[in-house]
Design a protein that fits this description.
The protein is mostly helical and 155 residues long. It contains 6 helices and 3 strands. It has a single domain, classed as Arc Repressor Mutant, subunit A.
Length: 155
């Protein structure tokens, strides 16, 4: 049984396309500024943020890949590049020969600490400061609702 996919109404299509354009432009601008001022790529920054979000700065390799929404091979290649720059280390898991951990190094902590203030200022300048407190609340609730739904969907 072939069902015709539901089309987006004009207002839905406009909202979706505006959201995608905004996300692409904002992500691109933030990535360029981050790279220019800190020599960290947006990918580096995302990995380092995920690692600093946990108390000991260490995550299982696949848990980190899931946190940043990357395939295993992309994560593996990127961690090798970051390790060569001294930002992270990959450690074998003592109780699982196939598993590994990724840990942030002191140099990685220094890099994220140096980059974060300027990055946060760019986020404020390009997005947050243009919204009212009410709009920020709505944005947070919409984002949380979509994230909850994505968590229920199979990858």
């Amino acid at each position: 049984m072939n069902e015709t996919p539901r089309r987006l109404a004009a207002t839905e299509a406009h909202a979706w396309r505006s959201f995608i354009r905004m996300q692409d432009k904002l992500s691109g601008r933030l990535a360029r500024e981050l790279q220019a001022h800190s020599q960290l790529s947006a990918s580096d920054y995302g990995v380092l943020v995920s690692l600093t979000d946990v108390l000991d700065g260490r995550l299982r390799f696949l848990e980190l890949a899931k946190a940043v929404e990357w395939e295993k091979s992309r994560m593996s290649h990127h961690i090798v590049r970051m390790a060569k720059r001294g930002l992270v280390v990959r450690e074998e898991c003592p109780d699982d020969g196939r598993g590994a951990f990724v840990s942030i190094t002191p140099a990685g902590r220094e890099a994220i600490a140096a980059a974060a203030p300027r990055h946060v200022e760019a986020v404020r300048r390009l997005a947050i400061d243009h919204l009212t407190p009410e709009e920020i609340g709505v944005l947070g609730r919409i984002s949380d609702r979509i994230l909850e739904q994505l968590a229920k969907e199979p990858c």
